[in-house]
Amino acid sequence: MRATLRQAARASVHLLLTAAVAFGSYIFVTVLLITATGALSVVGIWLLPETVLLVRRIAGAKRRLTASWTGREIPEAYTPLTGPVRQRVRTAVRDPGTLTDARWMAAHYAYPWLTVLMLPLWALGLVVDGVWSGLLGRPALVLPLIVRLADVEAAWSAALLRPSPKAMLARRVEHLTTTRADAVAAHGAELRRIERDLHDGAQARLVALSMRIGLAQRAYGADPDAARRLLADAQDQAEEALTELRHVVRAIHPPILTDRGLVGAVRALAAASGLRVDVRADGLPEEVRAPAAVEAAAYFVIAEALTNAAKYSGSEQAEVVLTRSRTGLNVRVRDEGCGGADESAGSGLLGMRRRVAALDGTVRVASPVGGPTVVDVELPCVW
Fold first, then answer.
1. What would the mean pLDDT of 213-219 be, rounded to a whole number?
2. What was the pLDDT predicted at 344?
3. CATH number assigned to the domain comprising residue 335
4. Nearest one of 124, 101, 118 to 153, comparing CA atoms
């Protein structure tokens, strides 16, 4: 009975908040009438985009309210209202999201009256279910109907507020344009870094190596001992140049990924991180590999997250979980440190997001002050 009462109370709160949003919508009718009059007279046409922005805010509040009840986020797909007044008006009129919000608001003037049904159900439920469930121990009959009312209201709102396929396609194109531009910028920065590393590292050592070999060749007939010393120095230079080249190659695509696979490479990362890292792989058999680009992205994300944990968290322990899903590869890195991760502070999270977004993946970072810090990454791929 207590669980039933808690569920009915939570549903009642949702229905009351829905009624509050509906009441605000009723008041908003005045704004809509003023905007319509101004648009028809052309003089007040500038009010149209501003009114559309207000409607978007109201619809956004309703989306969040519905998502808090259902546990499923309702996406938004709006075209930004920017530029001069004429462009803003044209965008507001042509945006499919405007029609979606208008349709929802028109319907929302009617179905929030479901809230009124909650009042007699509470009165009847406390009596009927108090006897039927509280005294006789039978399943409640009336109070669950309040939860059902909240479910119906949320289902109607979700259906009405869900963006049209055209709007979702436009949002998808915009997202892909942004992520591809970021990927191109990141690729250019990576090429410049490789060029700089080669110029300042391996190339300089190879030039020094060539000079020492030339000196040894000229000194070989007159002073064999000096020539041997120069050749020994040249050998050291060659080994240092090879080390520099391995470092550059490792930054492009770690050879350990090819040799050991993702799980083995992550275990090697964990061993070298300076932390006690628990690595778990769920549903990742050795004979099945993700695409090379996905493995590389996961590897660098984990490397960055463990580096951040070692530098900033103050924790000595971390956890890495690799999970194979039906649609891709999921990565979770968790540390029990102080939390408070800030993307603007140069912690590498922005680069991590760009690397993952280039593969159409997502990154979620939860880092409340006091910890823990959890980085969840989803990388879509075909197994």
1. 82
2. 66
3. 3.30.565.10
4. 118
The separation between CA 176 and the C-alpha centre of its own chain, rounded to angstroms, equals 14
* Residues 102 and 182 occupy one common structural domain: no
The Cα 282–Cα 335 span in angstroms is 19
**Are residues 369 and 270 located together in one domain of the fold?**
yes
Instruction: Choose among 290, 287, 292, 295: nearest CA to 269.
Output: 295
**Last-in-domain residue among 236, 252, 268:** 252
pLDDT digits (tens, 9 = 90+) for 112-153: 677 788 888 878 877 777 766 666 667 777 788 888 989 998
Residue 116: how many CB atoms within 10 A of its CB? 10
Quick: pLDDT tens for 222-233.
Answer: 788 888 888 888
Q: Based on the domain organization, do 148 and 30 belong to the same domain?
A: yes
Same domain, 236 and 137: no
Secondary structure class of 244 (helix, strand, coil): helix
pLDDT (tens digit, 9 = 90+) per residue, 166-203? 777 777 777 777 767 766 666 666 667 677 767 777 77
pLDDT confidence band for 234 (50 / 70 / 90): confident
The residues, ordered by sequence, that sit 6+ positions from 199 with a Cβ below 8 Å of its Cβ are none
Tell me how many domains the chain contains. 3
CA atoms in the 13 A half-sphere facing the CB of 320: 28
Domain boundary among 111, 143, 163: 163
Alpha-carbon span 214 to 279, nearest angstrom: 51
State the Cα–Cα distance between residues 348 and 182, nearest whole angstrom. 15
pLDDT band (50, 70, 90) for residue 251: low
Helix, strand, coil percent values for the chain (each to nearest 5): 70, 10, 20
- Both 33 and 152 in one domain: the answer is yes
Q: Please state whether the peptide bond connecting residue 372 to the residue before it is cis, i.e. omega within 30 degrees of 0.
A: yes
- Return all residues near 147 (Cβ < 8 A) that are at least 6 apart: 7, 8, 11
Q: Identify the three-state secondary structure at position 44.
A: coil
Place of tokens 């970021």: 182
Terminal CA-CA length for the chain: 47
Q: Are residue 142 and residue 13 in the same domain, yes or no?
A: yes
Instruction: Please name the residue that has the structure tokens 């509280």.
Output: 134
**CA 38 – CA 40 distance, rounded (Å):** 5
Where in the sequence is the domain holding 227, given as residue range(s)?
Answer: 168-252
Order of strands, sheet of 373-380, starting from the edge strand that comes earlier in the sequence? 276-282, 317-324, 328-335, 373-380, 362-366
Q: Are residues 55 and 125 in the same domain?
A: yes
